[in-house]
Amino acid sequence: MSEYTLSQVAQHKSKKDCWLVIDGRVLNVAKFLEEHPGGEEVLIELAGKDATQAFKEIGHSKSAQKLLLKYQVGVLKGYTFKNDADVQVASIQEPKKKEMSAFVINDDHMPKYAALVEFFLPLLVAGSYLSYRCLTA
Ligand code: HEM
């Protein structure tokens, strides 16, 4: 993946050649300008600059974060990613894994436990009631 300095990114600030940086990723958003739900103006205003803060302040969704990857043309020179260049992908996929493991626990253990309680609890109640009636008769 190519590396660019911020001054190299700054040379791409026209509507037809519109680059910006988000989280150390260099993005060419020229083809995304018209599609952006937040309008093209905000992107053009930040063209050639680091738009990380603005992007985060909006609270963009997970799908918006994934969309960043589609427009990536390189990485910012000197930017240190937490793990590796794909840290963003990893952090996007992480919640999915957590959802899956929670789902497996729910699906696997809880119903068995619940079935046991559902079966024995009424028997216990009925048994206790009958014993009480026999003893007090
Ligand atoms: C390549 C970079 C960007 C992508 C892929 C992107 C994508 C999106 C998407 C998919 C949405 C719809 C809402 C959501 O899913 O969160 C959105 C909304 C929006 N975006 Fe971006 N965006 C980018 C950069 C920016 C930047 C740099 C700004 C700067 C301020 C910005 C401002 C907004 C605003 C104001 C909205 C509308 C929020 C609303 O109406 O609730 N976006 N963007």
From TrEMBL:
Location of the Cytochrome b5 heme-binding domain: 1-77
UniProt key word ATP-binding: no
One Gene Ontology term, aspect cellular component: membrane
Molecular-function annotations in GO: heme binding; metal ion binding
Main location per the UniProt record: membrane
PROSITE patterns: CYTOCHROME_B5_1, CYTOCHROME_B5_2
Subcellular location: Membrane
Keywords on record: Heme, Iron, Membrane, Metal-binding, Transmembrane
Annotated InterPro entries: Cyt_B5-like_heme/steroid-bd, Cyt_B5-like_heme/steroid_sf, Cyt_B5_heme-BS, Cytochrome_b5
Domain of life of the source: Eukaryota
Family in the record: Belongs to the cytochrome b5 family.
Name recorded for this polypeptide: Cytochrome B5 isoform D, ARABIDOPSIS CYTOCHROME B5 ISOFORM D
